[in-house]
């Protein structure tokens, strides 16, 4: 029995102004095991799209009756994912971008990783649509806390960060850590913050090299995001999880990009400090453990 039959699985697809890509993604999913079995549900969260990209789902005609459409008014990437998760019935949540390509058997192969007891979350290899081009297999940070893709491992193995393009996670684990950060601005850092939080709370994140999905790498984000909002999410992640020396280091890297004092004022008037206190009590590992375990020089 494959793991996608053993579990009730919910695919959650947040999207915003995807054009034809969301329909192409839906069509591909429906042609695989994701669309052919009753124990798999597909939820599309249309987060304030202005291009009518999800109109094909509104009439509930075959073959799209299997897809559930939730419509919001631009609540942001993290909250849109959380909304889909909150409506999901599955034991396993699979978050997918609305602009991916998959092949038959992809989901069964991805979820086979959960046969390993230590796996709490897992991502596939992610690369461009062209299968001949190089894919990345999980991510890490460099000395400036910038994202770096990892090379293909020989087997299923732990990775510090799982990309949000496709991520499968046990629902009870997702709920225990509080899901994606609800205090983030529209877009940015929601996937890496979740991976970091999982590790600090004692869970484990893996990559499965036996499956690769294609991903359309957009030149501009789906949300109107200025530098201030992006850095705000980065600092909120740091204040929520890092020790003071690392927070100071990150501030130093960003002080010439934005007015840090404005961002910290916003952080102080948010729930960030309360969230930090809660996380420091609940977590199993500190950030020193995380950066040391994965040899991240930050």
Structural overview:
The chain is α/β, with parallel strands linked by helices and 298 residues long. It has two domains: 3-215, Spore Coat Polysaccharide Biosynthesis Protein SpsA, Chain A (Alpha-Beta Complex), CATH 3.90.550.10; 227-293, no CATH class. The protein has 13 helices and eleven strands. The chain has helices spanning 3-6, 21-30, 33-36, 55-58, 77-87, 106-111, 171-176, 190-200, 227-241, 244-254, 260-268, 272-282, 287-293; strands spanning 9-15, 40-47, 67-72, 92-96, 100-101, 121-127, 139-141, 147-149, 157-158, 166-170, 205-215. The strands form two sheets. Strands 1, 2, 3, 4, 5, 6, 9, 10 and 11 form a nine-stranded mixed beta sheet that branches. Helix 9 runs antiparallel to helix 10 (244-254) and helix 9 runs parallel beside helix 12 (272-282). The protein is globular and about 55 Å long. The protein starts with a helix and ends in a 5-residue tail after the last helix. The model has no long low-confidence stretch (mean pLDDT 93).
Concise description?
The chain has 13 helices and 11 strands. It has helices spanning 3-6, 21-30, 33-36, 55-58, 77-87, 106-111, 171-176, 190-200, 227-241, 244-254, 260-268, 272-282, 287-293, and strands at 9-15, 40-47, 67-72, 92-96, 100-101, 121-127, 139-141, 147-149, 157-158, 166-170, 205-215.
List the main descriptive attributes of the protein structure presented here.
single chain, alpha/beta, 2 domains, nine-stranded mixed beta sheet, two-stranded antiparallel sheet, 13 helices, 11 strands
């Amino acid at each position: 029995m494959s793991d996608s039959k053993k579990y009730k699985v919910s695919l959650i697809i947040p999207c915003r102004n995807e054009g034809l890509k969301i329909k192409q993604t839906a069509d591909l999913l429906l042609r695989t095991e994701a669309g052919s079995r009753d124990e798999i549900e597909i939820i599309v969260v249309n987060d304030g799209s202005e291009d009518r990209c999800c109109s094909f789902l509104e009439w509930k005609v075959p073959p799209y009756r299997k897809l559930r459409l939730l419509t919001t008014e631009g609540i942001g990437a993290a909250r849109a994912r959380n909304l889909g998760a909150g409506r999901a019935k599955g034991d396993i949540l699979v978050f997918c971008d609305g602009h991916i390509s998959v092949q038959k058997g992809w989901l069964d192969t991805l979820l086979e990783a959960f046969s390993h007891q230590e796996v709490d979350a897992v991502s596939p290899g992610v690369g461009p649509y062209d299968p001949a081009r190089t894919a990345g297999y999980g991510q890490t940070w460099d000395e400036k806390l910038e994202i770096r893709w990892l090379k293909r491992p020989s087997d299923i193995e732990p990775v510090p960060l799982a990309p949000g393009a496709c991520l499968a996670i046990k629902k009870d684990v997702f709920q225990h850590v509080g899901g994606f950060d609800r205090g983030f601005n529209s877009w940015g850092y929601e996937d890496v913050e979740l991976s970091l939080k999982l590790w600090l709370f004692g869970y484990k994140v893996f990559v499965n090299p036996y499956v690769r999905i294609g991903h359309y790498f957009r030149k501009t984000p789906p949300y109107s995001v200025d530098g201030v909002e992006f850095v705000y999410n980065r600092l909120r992640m740091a204040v929520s999880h890092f020790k003071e020396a690392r927070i100071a280091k990150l501030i130093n890297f960003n002080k010439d990009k934005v007015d840090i004092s404005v961002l910290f004022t916003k952080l102080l008037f948010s729930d960030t400090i309360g969230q930090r206190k809660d996380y420091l009590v609940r977590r199993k590992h500190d950030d020193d453990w995380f950066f040391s375990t994965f040899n991240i020089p930050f």
